[in-house]
Amino acid sequence: xxxxxxxxxxxxxxxxxxxxxxxxxxxxxxxxxxxxxxxxxxxxxxxxxxxxxxxxxxxxxxxxxxxxxxxxxxxxxxxxxxxxxxxxxxxxxxxxxxxxxxxxxxxxxxxxxxxx
Length: 116
Known about the structure:
It contains 2 helices and 4 strands; from the N terminus they run E-E-H-H-E-E. A hairpin with an 8-residue loop joins strand 3 (90-99) and strand 4 (108-115). It is α+β, with helices and mostly antiparallel strands and 116 residues long. It has a single domain (2-115), classed as GTP cyclohydrolase I, C-terminal domain/NADPH-dependent 7-cyano-7-deazaguanine reductase, N-terminal domain (GTP Cyclohydrolase I, domain 2, 2-Layer Sandwich). It has helices at 55-66, 73-85; strands spanning 2-15, 27-39, 90-99, 108-115. Strands 1-2-3-4 form a 4-stranded antiparallel β-sheet, covered by helices on one side. The protein starts with a strand and ends with a strand. It is elongated.
């Protein structure tokens, strides 16, 4: 078995996220994802078909961001985790979201770890 950690770090997307009136418009949200993946053996052909193509995670996050939005960061990170775990090679995923512009002096976020 060959184990790897695939990382999508600091993906900034505009999206509706929050419960307050001023959050009705899209705001900047930063997402970071780490996936623990397993392959039957290390890749030998240097071909994307042998490994997890992380484009599906980036594309899926952009699709979620274009949707109706989320009231809670907890719901957002669960949706991203489910997206990642839809690939059976992903054993565990860590997802972090950060609202970048809520406060002038801090960011606010949520992080989860989900496993199969």
